[in-house]
Amino acid sequence: MTGLKMSADDQVSALAGRLETHFEGVWRRSMADVPICNPALSVASVDFREWNGQALGIVVTPWFMNIVLAPLEDSAPVAGNSGDSKSVWLPAGKVDFLVSALDGFAPLLMCSLFSPMDDFRDHEAALATASAAMDALLDQQFLNDAPEPEIYPTAAEEPRQTVAERAEIYRQREAEGPPQLDRRAFFLRGDRKAPPQ
Length: 197
Prior knowledge:
The protein is an alpha+beta fold and 197 residues long. The protein is 30% helix and 22% strand.
């Protein structure tokens, strides 16, 4: 008797749960006391869904927020070695991913949105930002509405910020509330033009 094949939605749900379990284990075993972590946050898989035969969603941890793209059962596996760069066209434009090898998983693609996670006041703010990012990634209009990237000239003679000055900036950001999604962030990763036909 053969087992029943899981639906795409069930595969996506199972992958999201396994990713949460994996990163919760990493958090407990080796990251809980690392200064880069934001203790106000925890691990979550956010808004995972099926997209073109793959599971697409965002993983939030106390030390990063990453887009994840993983092939489902009937899709071609991710080719390449861990650390290789792969560009993927999503509705909002081209996103550059890295091939990632996690224990217990087939190779998958990850793209960093935030790391470290210092700017997030609480877990709810991180989840809201992840949901907004997923909506933007899958919205073709997002590309049309995005402003042109700004160019920020650097001045070699300007002194670097002191630790106290950086701390004051973070304090002011926290007082202003949760961070807003930077609509330019996705497009600074690659070409904003439509894919070739």
